[in-house]
Write a structure and sequence with these properties.
Strand order of the largest sheet: 2-1-3-4
Largest sheet: 4 strands, mixed
Distance between the termini: 25 Å
Number of strands: 4
């Protein structure tokens, strides 16, 4: 019954992975950081997907931390959230804005 209620409310249970696969996912998510505002509805949507995919992505509150705010503006180019900072294996950094793009990227990369 609880599962039905959660589905109706949009709160899906986190994805289940083997310990080995989860460790690999955790390693990959160390290269990701979500710049966000705690009450932003688009940020909440992204955080919900992060939780459903059981991802350990660092949240950076750009509204309350001046260093993260300045990094978002200086390196990302915009003071807009959500923004996913992706550090690639070659050392390059990508700043992905727009919740729909971020959600699509996370699902494509981390769904089983």
């Amino acid at each position: 019954m609880l599962d039905i209620i959660k589905k109706l409310l949009g709160a899906a249970a986190p994805i289940q992975r083997s310990m080995d696969v989860q460790q690999q996912v955790d390693e990959e998510t160390r290269q990701l950081a979500l710049y966000q505002f705690s009450t932003c509805s688009y940020c909440i949507k992204v955080r919900r997907v992060i939780k459903q995919l059981d991802l350990n992505i660092e949240y950076r509150d750009a509204s309350n931390n001046q260093l993260w705010k300045q990094a978002l503006i200086r390196e990302g180019g915009l003071y807009q959230t959500p923004c996913l900072r992706i550090e690639h294996q070659d050392g390059s950094v990508q700043w992905m804005y727009e919740s729909a793009d971020i959600i699509r990227y996370l699902k494509r990369r981390f769904s089983t």
